[in-house]
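Journal club prep — side note

Before the paper discussion, L.F. wants everyone to see what a predicted structure for a comparable chain looks like in token form. Sequence:
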Amino acid sequence: MGAINRWLRIRLGMKADPNAIPRHVKIGRYSHNLGGQSFLYCSEQSPVEIGAFCAIGPGVLFVCQADHPSETASSFGLQNQIFKTKTMNEYLRTKGPIVVGNDVWVGARAIILSGVTIGDGAVVAAGSVVTKNVPPYAVVGGNPAKFIRNRFSDDTVAAMQKICWWDWPLERLMQEKTAFNLPAEQFVARFGGV
């Protein structure tokens, strides 16, 4: 009976749907595996923008606004639970928006902190905690996430970013589908002239 009541309250607008994408999140076309529980305290001050064709693993968390001030005499629990002087969003801090480029792969249970930009084509290893910007086509991993390697040479990365295949219309993507199985160097030779 509890599940039915919860469902009905969500449908009637009496309770927020925990699976709804927050309004300050923009998700590009064909990016997948995201729900409301993927974002922690997303707000106007801490928005998230995710590009097109991103693969987000299960349990990935975007921590938008959750930094606690450490210079105060007490932690948030006292002020929120006992004093009730500040709301959650008034108390918690952010380092700014989270921006995820196009064609990014974020492995299962990775955590992306506020103020981070992840470049196009980057790979974030499962379980990583991303605290700093990730360059395009870099592979990072660990806690905190560190650079592991580049996916491609600098010339290939530059060509891939010039091609911007993620902006192609779906019809063109379908026409060129076999090219996406080519090694990146052959792909850019075909479409980017490297």
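L.F.'s comment for the group: The radius of gyration is 20 Å. Keep this in mind when we get to the figures.
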